[in-house]
Amino acid sequence: MKLRVYLDLSNAVTRRRVAALLRADGEVALVGTAEDADLVVSERVVATAAPGAVAQGGALTARELEVLRLVARGLSNKEIAADLSVTTHTVKYHLAAVLDKLDVRSRTEAVSLGIRTGLVPL
After folding, report:
1. Cβ-based neighbour number of residue 46 at 10 Å
2. Helix or strand or coil: residue 32?
3. CATH (one of 1.10.10.10, 3.30.70.100, 3.40.50.410, 1.10.630.10) for 62-117
């Protein structure tokens, strides 16, 4: 099932650019109204996305980034461990490193910051 996205963007150039990025993903469908959408991308999200915003504790490793993206998809530690063929302890270790490097306290904060900074694609 595709993720249905509505773009609530007044700037035509920004709307075209974001739409082009989303259309490149076969799992995303742009919809005409916010009521039909699973996700609404608004000016506020675009405005707070800070290009070049890097994790405060240093850059995430490839594995940490992978764990963050799986967390963003809603997977539990056990599901992430199975997906990556590692133990749940290893997932917890990577997740702790992500939280530390992003200077956040929860999975939710990490995903939110990841989306705003472009670490986690919409």
Report:
1. 17
2. coil
3. 1.10.10.10
| Measured distance CA(79)–CA(65) in Å, rounded | 16
Query: Of 29, 33, 41, whose CA–CA distance to 115 is shortest?
Result: 41
CA distances to 53, 67, 73, 85, 119 from 62, rounded to whole Å, are: 17, 9, 17, 15, 11
Residue of 56, 58, 55 lying closest to 114 (CA atoms):
55
Return the domain boundaries, the chain.
3-48, 62-117
DSSP three-state, residue 66: helix
**pLDDT per residue of the chain (122 residues) written in tens, 0 to 9:** 788 888 888 888 888 888 888 888 888 889 998 888 888 887 654 444 444 444 455 688 889 999 999 999 999 999 999 999 999 999 999 999 999 999 999 999 999 888 888 888 87
Cβ density class 75-92: b for 16+ within 10 Å, e for less: bebeebbeebeeeeebbe
